[in-house]
Structure formats: structure tokens, C-alpha cells
Specification:
Length: 253
Amino acid sequence: MTTAVALPTPTRRRRPRRPEQLLGQNSEMRAEGVWNWTLPALATRLPDGRTVNTCPAAGVCGLACYARSGAYTFPNVVARHQQNLMYVLDDLTGWQRQMAAELAHPRHAGGWVRIHDAGDFFSDHYLSAWLRLMAFRPAVSFYCYTKELTRFRRLVEPAPPRNFRWVISRGGKEDHLIRPGDRVADVFPDDAAIRAAGYHSQDASDLLAVLGPAPVGIPANNIPHFKKRMAGRSFGEWQAEQDARRAARRSPR
């Protein structure tokens, strides 16, 4: 007599639960009429065990990232940002379809969407999905900060959408690829440091990052342990120091 052996059922990743609304507004963005989409900052471990780097080009910014403190660490906020990430990872087509439908709402016509107040364009497929959305919704304007210079050089700069503006944020692994004429932003300890460096503060409005004079200065959030790590430097200066130390270690003696 043979005994039946139950074979293990192949595991399948469940389709991510879809948020009812994809775009949100914090109080600051609401005052400016800007909507935003966000992901977990830097890296996250998802409930299913996957670890995802959402900011592949991050450098020193990861050591003093405002989006890894305060309200961003609240369990409900973490869960929502992870839900957003799982949606684009597991059903990018469905996410794109839902985002396109949401952007068709009259409240977005003539308005602005900030892509990421945390996270970055972590893959070619993800950035390409946003570029398709921009082409499909020309009545909406989009902007972002990014450290993904190599990806933007390949996928955005050859034919940039008319309704998309971006600023390269210093403090990343690809700072050395910044060219004269690139629109750049840097985080400084305070407004006085911004002025001393000849930068233009965007503190009055986040939209100044892409609409105001450049280069763009961002005052650091008043988070004591992050300011201590900055040690009076801007992110760009801090990154340059780290890059110089690494280069010195690699050079033959």
C-alpha cells in the first residue's frame, strides 16, 4: 500500500493591495497646491522579506536623511510607503494605469506633482513608467530632486518631457558627474551658509527648486544628531571629502 505524499504548493507573490488614492499632500505641499508621491527613503525591508534599495545613488545624504526620522518612522507612514513600493515592484502596469486615471482628475490640471519626497528613481523600468505618464498627462507638471545622474543622462536628457523639471541633489555617489549648466541643489546647515555659498534658498517654496534661480540651497532640518554629522558642511562638501578619502585609499603609494 502506497502512501500519498502531498507536494508543496508553489508559492506565488500576492498581488499588492492597491491604495484608493496614490497622491498625497502634507501641510506644506497643500499650502502650495502641490501633490506628491513617495517611497521609503534609502532602503527598506518589506513584509515579505525583500530588501529594496530605493536610492541607489545615495551617498552622505543617507547619513542625515530627514525622511528617516520623525513622522516618517511612524508605523502607519512606513506601512503606506512600503505599500507604494510593493505596488510598483509587483504590478507596475496596474500602478501606471491607476496613476494615469488619478492624474486625469480636474484638480490636477495645471498643477504640480512632486515625485518623491523620499526615495528616488531606483530602476530604469520605474523611471520609464513616469516618463510615459508625463507624456500621457501633458496638462500636469511634474518635478523632482534626484541623484540618479547616470539614469537621467540615458533616459531623460535625450528627449525631456516639456512638463517635467528636475534638480540634481548633491550628496550622492554620482556628484562627480555633475556638469556645468546642470541645475543643482545642495543641503546647507542654515540660511547663512546658503547665502555665503552663493546659492538661492528654496525655503519659501519647494517649487523654487525648479522654478527659481539656481543653484538651489536647502536649509537642513533642525535634527540635532543629523546637524552634528554635517559638522558645518553642505552635503556636497561632505560628499567631496568622502570621495577624496576613497580616491586616496585607492591610489598607489
